[in-house]
């Protein structure tokens, strides 16, 4: 299978609007396999459903919908596919200067401006703010003209004032490097996405990157702020979280289905990532969803 760097997505605002607001029903917006980027900032709200998200070098699992702010030119995959089982998805896209440049100098806009800068690393918002903003985001997709713009500013302002969020990538994310680095790292990401259930050797990925193993290890750590083994384990653990939450499989089966070939190593790695055992996670998840 031939791999490519993330595809550039061209975005045009809705007619009569300075930004784009798209409403998708259920699995209409199937893009979870499409690795892409765009200069526009993107706010994605997924109502209900669960799945894996890949934003930059961060791979994580969401279990009851999602609210994500993705900064300019940060590569990511779409949030939903036919297995997400979401009710609907709202995607809002706007350029950094969609309000003009002067307005950002207003003191009232300072916190929103700072949040959009932080979004270059990807921001995921927590349950509290996600639930609070759901009616406003839904109303936004049904509004028009000036009302729609005012609602968007109100939503961004609420997001800028909450403490209920998490930054997904390290501040020095690789997109500040050269295009050649970007292409190379995306080749590696795609290889992990396609082969995480199998053993992936350092020799294999170093070869893909046309580097020696020691050079590749230093390079990958410098660019992603994690070792290649940490990155692969994170991908595998995220897959296991999805299986534990959604599939009636035994934990041993999930271990091997997620690319681990040693059960005790799977348990140890799972605890490092989640601070609990796979069985504790499944039990806790069942209680939350009951």
From TrEMBL:
The keyword Thylakoid does not apply. Gene3D superfamilies: Homeodomain-like, Jelly Rolls. Residues 186-284 form the HTH araC/xylS-type domain. Keywords: DNA-binding, Transcription, Transcription regulation. GO terms for molecular function: DNA-binding transcription factor activity; sequence-specific DNA binding. SMART domains: HTH_ARAC (SM00342). PANTHER family: ARAC-FAMILY TRANSCRIPTIONAL REGULATOR, TRANSCRIPTIONAL REGULATOR MTLR. This is AraC family transcriptional regulator.
């Amino acid at each position: 299978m031939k791999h490519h760097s993330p595809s550039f997505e061209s975005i045009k605002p809705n007619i009569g609007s300075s930004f784009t607001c798209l409403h998708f029903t259920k699995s209409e917006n199937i893009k979870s396999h499409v690795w892409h980027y765009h200069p526009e900032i993107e706010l994605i709200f997924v109502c209900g459903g669960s799945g894996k998200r890949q934003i930059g070098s961060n791979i994580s699992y969401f279990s009851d919908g999602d609210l994500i702010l993705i900064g300019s030119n940060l590569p990511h995959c779409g949030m939903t596919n036919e297995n997400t089982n979401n009710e609907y998805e709202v995607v809002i896209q706007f350029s950094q200067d969609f309000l003009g440049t002067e307005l950002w100098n207003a003191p009232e806009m300072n916190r929103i401006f700072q949040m959009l800068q932080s979004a270059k690393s990807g921001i995921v918002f927590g349950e509290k703010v996600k639930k609070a903003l759901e009616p406003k985001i839904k109303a936004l997709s049904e509004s028009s003209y000036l009302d729609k713009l005012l609602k968007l500013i109100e939503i961004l302002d609420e997001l800028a004032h909450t403490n209920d969020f998490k930054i997904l990538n390290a501040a020095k994310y690789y997109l500040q490097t050269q295009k050649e680095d970007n292409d190379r790292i995306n080749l590696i990401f795609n290889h992990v996405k396609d082969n995480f259930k199998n053993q992936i050797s350092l020799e294999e990925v170093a070869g893909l990157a046309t580097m020696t193993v020691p050079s590749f290890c230093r390079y990958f750590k410098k660019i992603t702020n994690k070792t290649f083994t940490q990155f692969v384990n994170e991908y595998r653990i995220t897959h296991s979280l999805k299986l534990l939450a959604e599939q009636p499989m035994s934990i041993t089966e999930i271990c091997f289905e997620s690319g681990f070939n040693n059960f005790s190593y799977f348990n140890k790695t799972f605890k490092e990532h989640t601070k609990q055992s796979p069985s504790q996670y499944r039990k806790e998840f069942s209680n939350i969803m009951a």
